[in-house]
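I have been asked to look over a protein record a colleague put together. Alongside the sequence sits a line of tokens, each denoting a local backbone shape. I have pasted the whole thing underneath without changing anything:
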Amino acid sequence: QARLVESGGGLVQSGGSLRLSCVASGFTSDYTSIGWFRQAPGKEREGVSTMHIGFGTTYYTDSVKGRFTISRDNVKKTVYLQMNNLKSEDTAVYYCAASDDWGYAGIDRAHYNYWGQGTQVTVSS
């Protein structure tokens, strides 16, 4: 059974850093994209950053460009999100997600069909 497990969330002061990790296991076929989404209280879940495995491309929502970096360790089957210069508006539950839609590359959550349980990130001002 395909599974995504996130870790690394926590409480950090504004301007601080966190690194989220997501371990993928149980996939019987390769996923084509993997990445991070977040949902703040009262808001819709939004794409933060993803990567297309086949194309080797990465995508970021505008609000995190220059501050967040997505990366992947193929051996460990782990994807990371390095978050620097965190702001209070980054506070949310962060979800790891994967897609087997080989023709799609981007941060539209509609194309992602595997989801983790989420990890809370809280940035205090």
